[in-house]
Design brief:
Elements lengths: L5 H11 L10 H16 L2 E7 L2 E8 L8 E5 L6 H9 L2 H7 L4 E5 L19 H15 L4 E6 L1 H12 L4 E7 L8 H13 L2 H9 L2 H6 L2 H11 L4 H12 L16 E6 L5 H9 L6 E6 L6 H4 L1 H14 L9 H6 L5 E5 L8 E4 L14 E5 L1
Parallel strand pairs: 3-4, 3-5, 5-6, 6-7, 7-8, 8-10, 10-11
Antiparallel strand pairs: 1-2, 2-4, 9-11
Length: 374
Amino acid sequence: MHSGGDVMTTEMQEIAITEEKPLLTGQAESKDAELAARILLDQGQEHSIETPHGVLHVTLHGTRTTRRPAILTVHDVGLDSKSCFSPLFRFEEMQEIVKNFTLIHVDAPGQEEGAAVYPTGYQYPSMDTIAEMIPAVLQFFNFRTVIGVGVGAGAYVLSKFSLANPDSVEGLVLVNIDPNTRGWIDWAAQKLISVTSSLTEQILSHLFSQEELSSNTELVQSHRERISKASNLVNIELFWKSYNSRRDLNIDRNSTFKCPVMLVVGDQAPYEDAAVDCNSKMDPTTTSFLKMADAGGLPQLTQPAKLTEAFKYFIQGMGYMASSCMTRLSRSRTTSLSSSYSMDGSRSRSRTLSQGSQGGQMPPSPSQTMEVSC
């Protein structure tokens, strides 16, 4: 829905703000109203937002309560906000978390489905420039702060935004982050690949693990089909080139993010080494690192349950969710993340989350370090 329908928008928001404990009278009606609001809001409200560097396509879900940070997402190359994040944010247990927040999905310039194709010779913005477009989105919706969730190129954009605007970011979830510029060997290899393999195949090998590509999983097939037939393939190529020309994030223990960060990567995924390298440069007291088995290249698509669970603890650690509203979630988990706590306070090591079998309940104290083997 476009921002033109303001009357409709206000009505929708009013329906959506339902009481946690509806009054007994008319409880059924309020449930119906909530359901109607859910259906309406599921499509999200689409906006075209003017920024100093061009227009961004943005989709907003949920009520616009600015009492809390918004959850702001940026997708990877070869994806848009829907194909990158829908499975995660529509996941049943994620609804329990996000119903308390406003969700803002940002599409990188020209990447949304059906976007107009850029003319030949168009100067596509650099990754730094895309990061400089994000503040305009916060201003547009009157949000002072966000929790950023980015994948690949989107993780890089949100990292840049966060380093430049530390007061605007309360937390970051970075999936498949590569903090480094491409070395010349990588660059030469990429040049060679771009001669021998199609743009679609190059992007697939950026998104998926070797194992997924070799077994040609259903996920790989569906994304191959979608990318190769995309009407805005020209724009996707421009975004891909822009990502491959990224500069070094220049983070180290002394100059890093000022907020809690959760790094996520699949075991054997293309960016596993890059994420491990990034983790080594972070402040271990505020960073958790989730390396996921059986997740392939895009854990938010293949393992939404595990990522939801980790995101839940991350949000709890920031003090945004009382443990009381987590009980239903915990009960309904079949494969819970197991945990062991260390109490070494400020000297705590980086919290590493990796995968194991036995389930366990986490005590709801955000001050402790978590060592989770998942």
